[in-house]
Amino acid sequence: MTDRFVTGLCRQSGLDGYSSHDHEGDVMARSARVSGRGRNEALHEHLDQLGWSRRGFARRVFERCQAVKLPNTVSPSTVARWCSGETTPSAALAAAACHVLSSASNKQISPQSLGWPADTTDIATESLQYADLPHTTRTLAKLWELDALRNPALIKSMFFPGVFGLASREALVMPPDSEISGHGTYKVTASDITLLEDQTKLYGSLDGQHGGGKFRAVFAAFLAMHTVPLLNGAFSAKAGKRLYGSVADAVLAMASMAYDDQLPGFAQRYDLQAMRLAQAVGDHARIARVHIHQTRLAAAQGDRREVLTHARSAVLAGEGAPPMVRAYAAITEARAWAFNKNSEQTIAAVTRARDGFERAKESSTLDWLSWFDRFELEAQAAWALAGAGLIDAGLLALKEAEGMPCERVRDRVELLITGAELARLSGDIAVYEQKAKRAEEASRTLASRRLAARITRLTAGQPLDDF
Description:
By secondary structure, this protein is an all-alpha fold. 66% of the residues lie in helices and 1% in strands.
């Protein structure tokens, strides 16, 4: 797909310009009194409620700037000028300050509410915000445009640990949005949503056959052309519930592709927006799925504590969900415990996952989880058991997983890697070398940077301490 064609698709869906919403104009009008026109009462109020001094606030904002690689220095005198209304921060610095305030207050505080600029072109910062549905819609449109144009330069590998803390708490404890109908000009039909769902299944299947770097741009172009008008269209609350859930599935498919293509910054931002869509419709099963995605991303960063936190959050979110979802969360927890080298907790979580799978009925399987069959369960169990050093149990699980269909190319390569790692742990060098060679050969048709990196470590004889 050429850049010219994709750009045309983006223009068809309104991506060459973004109109502001009326309520945003109202917010800016109300907050104008605090922007360079005297004492910033809103900022004073937040600092008073938190019991923060100017020095304490300056220190926290500076720490946030360091965390997100902003070059700004923030001193007490900087904050004093903000409070007096003498100056306002840049858009990027305003986003950092509002992140600090939002995290401490457990509620979203926007730059506009403080009379500060919000640079809507700064997608790298804006897409880390967990806000309302209009924000989510605008953010996804921009992310899809960047992906469709194969232009990850604005986000690169900008993954920020801790971003999901506030979003996770809100998604798990807050009720669904009271208003999920749409009031745009285009009338959304059931067939529109069905097309989106069918395309998500198609590209999910292609992802497993060819790797996340192969068709991500094409799927992004489709989403930009087809889905953005739906999100901005007219639909009932009932249709909105289906639409937001289906869009969340598409976004999570994009997140998986970005993760496989070693673009953690993109994957994190997709996951964050998918979480907001799932929260809007009160879908805790999909919220659990987002946490499972974040578990993998945290593991890629080597953060053992975050891996376990997200895995446990997935289990918590999955309470009350269909048994298959709980089995999926449990096997993820098993892998998280293995990543933390706790063999006792690993085997306990594997047992819970298998029990949950046995209790699940076909009728309770969700469309987005239809790929999670016995083969996949045992494949993940085998890796968890290998990571925990439980070699015999891992080999038994691996044997159960080897009936996986041949068209799931990437998953079968992962099985070879697991088999090689188990052979290495058991000291069987001949089997280790054989499976490592087969994995390398089988992966040559895959556009998966993540898998290529794993195989490089495998063939170099390095321990695979990953997820």
